[in-house]
Structures are given as C-alpha cells and as structure tokens.
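Narrative progress, year one. The postdoctoral researcher (J.K.) led the effort to move from monomer predictions toward full complexes, under supervision of the PI. The following entry was the first complex the group processed end to end, covering 547 residues in total.
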Amino acid sequence: MTDLAWIDAALTSARPQALGALLRYFRDLDTAEEAFQEACLRALSNWPRNGPPRDPAAWLIFVGRNVAIDHVRRRGRQEALPADEILSDLDDAEAALAERLDGSHYRDDILRLLFICCHPDLPATQQIALALRIVSGLTVKQIARAFLVSESAMEQRITRAKGRIAAADVPFEAPGAAERAERLAAVAAMIYLVFNEGYSANDGPDGIRAPLCDEAIRLARLLLRLFPGEPEIMGLTALLLLQHARTPARFDANGSIVLLEDQDRGLWDRKMIAEGLALIDKAMRHKRRGPYQVQAAIAALHARAARAQDTDWAQIDMLYAALETLQPSPVVTLNRAVAVAKVRGPAAALAMIEPLAPRLSGYFYFFGVKGALLLQLGRTEEARVAFDQAIARANSAAEAAHIRLHLDRLMKDGAPAGDAKASS
Amino acid sequence: MLYAILCYDSEDVVGSWTKQEEDAAMAKLAVVEQKLAREGRLGPVARLLPTTAATTVRKGREPLVIDGPFAETKEQLLGFFVVDCSTLEEAIEAARDLARASSSAGAYEIRPLAVFKPGGNVT
C-alpha cells in the first residue's frame, strides 16, 4: 500500500470522530468542516515525512482545533469581535488542548454528528446526502453520481439541508435516553436507505451506485460500535452484510438479473456471510425482536442454504408473518406470498396477494410475482397480461429484460417457464 | 520451538481498503507465507472478522456473555482455540465449557473467522 492510500484510509476512518469532536468545540458545522479539511491537508504533508501518528483522530482534532482558533483570532483582529459564546468556548478549548479523548466523548461526538444528519426536520433524501457528505466524507461529485443527479443539484440539496439544521437550532448537548432511542431509529433508517439506494439500483455488478452499499455497512458498523448491545443495530448490520454478500451473483455477464434461486452460491461472499450470521445469532440471544432482526433472519436462512432447494421456506414464511405484525406493509405480504407459494402452493399465494392489488398497482414486483404464480397455475393468458403490466412499471432496463424473458418463453412454447419471483 | 505471530492494526483502516488494495496487501503476505510453507514451518493462518461481530464470555462462577469485543487492558492475550460451530450459540457453549473448566479469571472473546488455512506441517 502506498503512503497516500494509507493516509487516505486513515483520514476516512478518523473522520467521524475528528469531525464530531471539532463540532463539539466550534458548534458550527461549516467551521468544523473547514478545520477538519485544513487538518487533513497538514496530515498529507506531515505524515509522509514524520510517519503516521499513533492516534490519527486525536492528531486531526488537535491540529484542526489549533488551525481554526488561529483563523478566528486573525479574523478577530480585522473584523468585529466574535460572539461571546465562541470566545468562551475557545478559552475552554485552549485550556483543554492536551486533553485525551475519553470513551464517552468519542461516543457522543459521533452520535451528535449522526443525529444532526438525521434531524427530523430534514426529508430522507437530504438526510442521506448530508450523512454521506458529513460522516462518510464522500465528495459532492461522488454523491451526485450515486444519486444520478447533477453536481449542482446535489450541492444545492446539501446546502439546503445545512441551512435547515442551522435554522432548527440543533442542541449540541448529548440527547437524553428517550430522545436518543428515537434518533437512533432514525439513524438506522437512514443507513438502511443508503444501502437500498445502492442495492436496488439494478445497474449491474459494477454499478456506480454499488459503493453506497459498502458505505452503509461502514456506517452500520460505526453505529454498532457505539451501541454494542442493541439487537436491532446488530440486526441491521447483519441484514446489510447478508444481502450485500450476494452482490457478485445478482447479475450475469450481460448485466441481466439472476434470481436468488438461480444464483451461483459459490460467488456469494463467505466473509460477509460469516460476519452477518454471527451478528444475527448475537442479536437473537436478546429475545427483543425487531424488523431488522427478522429481515436479517430471513436473509440468514437463504445464506445457510447450500442449494436453493435446501431453503427452509416454512421458517421464512413464519418470519414474514412476524414481520407483518411488526411492520405491516403490502410489500411484506407480497414477499411472504413467495414463501407461501413454496410451502402451500401457488393458489394459496395468489389468494394472499390479490387483495394487495389496489395498493401495489404501480409496483413492478407485484405484477412479476402475480404473473409467475398465474404461470405456475397454468393460467398463461392472465400471466401474460401480468407480465406486460410488470414491464410497464419496470424501474430499470434489467428489470424489464428479465420479465421479457418470461414473455418470450411464453410466446415460444406457451409452457410455464419457471417462476419469476423471489427477489435477487 | 513454535511461535505465534499476532497481527494488530486499525480495523477501520483495513476495513476501508478497496478490493484492489486488499488483494495487493494479501498477495504480498502470501509470498512470505509460501516461503514459510515450503520450508515446512507454517502452521495455521487465520484472519478474524471485525470486532463488531464479537461476543465475550467473562469467566466467573457462572460465565457471563457480553456483547462486543474483549476490552480490558489489564489482561493479556494468552492463547486461542479454533472451533467449528454452525451457530454462534454453539461457540458460546464451547466457550462456557472452557470457562467452567478454567481455574483462572479472565475472559474468552469469540470472533468469527474470515479466513482459515489449516497449514499443519509443523509439529
């Protein structure tokens, strides 16, 4: 590894802690970011010469704080005096210059950073963009690419988010227990959204949005380190790992979707699976069930099946039933129907999804599953209609191509062509 | 005489390597491993998954299971076991048995393995 690559990795991993601490001192996101940037620049010139510091985050906080204090002082001579509260904070900061980072500060600093990004005043799209910019340190250009929007549009989105936070007068004290639990759920949801942005992009294994999945896993591990005993955070991390493990097998060489049951399980990432299984097992010991844990448990059953036919569908059906009570949604019921079809046959599954039609009339996957079930029941004409409806609602070329494959087979021999269900 | 060589580094930094960086780092280590193996001097090689996947069994009259890695600095790493388990529960059970059989204080940290090469031509 080159010096530069090492420094880059060290700066990235120190970022949440260092930026969080700088935010605690300066109580202003822009000042903290500038201080961190400046410290990173100095690291780039200093570290190759003097070797990496023992604690990169502490080094960056120390340098970043001094640099920013310096700036404020210099500006102070030219302009009006800075506000009182900034001055008194700086005195404290200087007095504590050699202060070591203790565990509780570390935790609160990173949490504050995450909580700010997931502020309830921000819409989800802004939360995600802000977290990727502030916590992960992705450039605006990288984030814009991942969301398929222009750089200026993303810049605007992030600026607006920062403006809202400034206007919302975010408290910099660590939140109390009740608020913390609420905000923790918001952070978990944000991380899950980041992952889904990358995962559901369906733009192939080398898709430009795939790094979002890695980033989400990194954020989930960060959160887990702050809350090592929280089963839902274990569940969330396990869920992301177990799903992401399948990524190498989800698309074929032409970029077409490969269904879960047709995937080459030898391509699944065994390391991620081992980590995910250990985490979900750990979560289940707490006997405090939650939606992330249940979804991770479902993913774990797929991961544990050496071949598709070894899948424990009865158990998956039960887990989806549990998820339906924890987090009722027509999409959950639709997913459950796939398991039901395996356990009790396509007629039972079809009866289960038919009432969902009004609520899922715009959903690609609904018509894909419906078409596949009808096909299994030999109702080919109705299946054809459903597949046509699915194509009309496809979100990507790969989704449409996948359904077209079924239609083509139908046209050719009118015979059932396997099933189009089970998401990849 | 057998020696164990233990690896320490920041899991954050190593965890954020790209696939290329990871492969390059492993390829360089593999050269050294192969040399040792040719000389018949290489035993098992293992790589652990992140500490976020760790569980700790603290020894005591009744062993206590704690989420997360071993965090004490007053105790030192004295040894390790590699056990084959189909679930974490089985691994915890094995660690509990060890804890009950152990006559000292301390803890067992349970970590899933990312890589295990049995080696085994050393005795």
